[in-house]
Specification:
350 residues, seven-stranded mixed beta sheet, 14 helices, 16 strands, 39% helix, Transcriptional regulator, AbiEi antitoxin, Type IV TA system
Length: 350
């Protein structure tokens, strides 16, 4: 089913993409290092390309395929990148849907996925992509459960018309049973209250570490009327958890020293209320898992359930090495990016 979504926009290419007609001598420019080949018949200026973050290079690759194949229907990470949903690192492969009569294969950096019944397809600016809901279901079925949770949370944030029940129903309606049970874990827990990929993935890690669930986005009103919102709140022990992306303090969102002073002032303001402690953590703690456990346990949060080692091990593999950015689309929507890193690991088949 093809749907027009005027309220959703495609994330534009982070770099100018050039066709051979745009260059007097493409091969000479390539040999001299002036341009790089993004894919056959599509080039980009070399210096800006080298400066791109991994997720941005992937987004450019997806746009390059769209230039070459304007009728392509993008799915999985490729749809996610175009919609501003989570993309882990640079997945390299571009994913497109084909009808069940075509062969599923991977060639020239494009993987085709056969389907007997197309999920919801949306047309935005001449580009065909699976809808945010359909994209979330695909990622929840075939990728790591924490990544699936981040995708489902993002879909709920992008399109307010999507509901958790709608995601679950879409998963059950798909003709293929492959990945259906896996997806239920992520889709059952999905909520728009988590405002970043870091919040989604750290909440998955929190559950597997055996800690109780927090209240999300709790509002605190001080005596002077000032209002603060906390990401994760455990009222039983007065603990406020704040997943803070490292990039919030690396200079791209303002003076890091000023931002840290503002954070400390906010913490002091919260501690004058019912908050007894504020715990901060970032991507490194989540990627290594056990530092997150130490932070939460060290602030008195009880581990009420057994530690689930298998998903924690696979999560650490997914987020290692953590020197590759993970994009959650927050820049496009005007939020501070709490984004991070990883690898191309965790890509199941699908």
């Amino acid at each position: 089913m093809l749907t027009l979504f005027p309220s959703i926009t495609i994330v534009s290419s982070p770099i100018s993409l050039l066709r051979p007609d745009d260059l007097p001598h493409p091969e000479r420019a390539l040999a001299q290092g002036e341009v790089v080949r993004v894919r056959r018949g599509v080039y980009a200026p070399a210096a800006p390309w080298r400066a791109l973050r991994p997720w941005a290079r992937y987004l450019a690759r997806v746009h390059a395929v769209a230039l070459c194949y304007p009728d392509a229907i993008f799915t999985h990470e490729s749809a996610a990148a175009l919609l501003g949903m989570p993309v882990i690192g640079d997945p390299v492969t571009v994913h497109v849907l084909v009808s069940s009569t075509d062969a599923a294969r991977e060639s020239s950096g494009i993987r085709t996925h056969r389907t007997t019944s197309l999920p919801e397809i949306i047309a935005i600016g001449g580009v065909l992509v699976t809808s945010p809901a359909a994209t979330a279901v695909s990622l929840a079925r075939y990728r790591h459960r924490a990544f699936g949770l981040a995708a489902a949370d993002a879909a709920l944030r992008i399109d307010p018309a999507i509901t958790r029940e709608g995601l679950l129903n879409a998963n059950e309606r798909r003709s293929s049973s492959r990945g259906r049970r896996t997806a239920r874990w992520s889709l059952t827990r999905a909520t728009s209250a988590r405002e970043s990929v870091l919040e989604s993935i750290s909440d998955a890690a929190r559950e597997w570490l055996g800690f109780p669930p927090p209240e999300l986005q709790h509002t605190f009103i001080a005596a002077d009327g000032s209002v603060d919102r906390g990401d994760q709140w455990w009222p039983e022990i007065g603990l406020l958890g704040e997943p803070d992306g490292e990039f919030k303090y690396d200079g791209r969102f303002g003076d890091p020293a000023l931002l840290l002073r503002q954070r400390r002032a906010r913490d002091r303001r919260l501690l004058r209320q019912e908050v007894k402690a504020v715990a901060h953590w970032g991507w490194i703690e989540v990627a290594q898992v056990w530092p997150l456990q130490n932070i939460l346990a060290g602030h008195g949060l009880p581990q009420l359930y057994p530690v689930q080692h298998a998903p924690l091990r696979s999560l650490m593999a997914l987020l290692r090495p953590y020197d590759v950015l993970l994009f959650d689309g927050a820049q496009r929507r005007g939020h501070s990016t709490r984004a991070f890193e990883r690898t191309t690991g965790g890509r199941g088949n699908g």
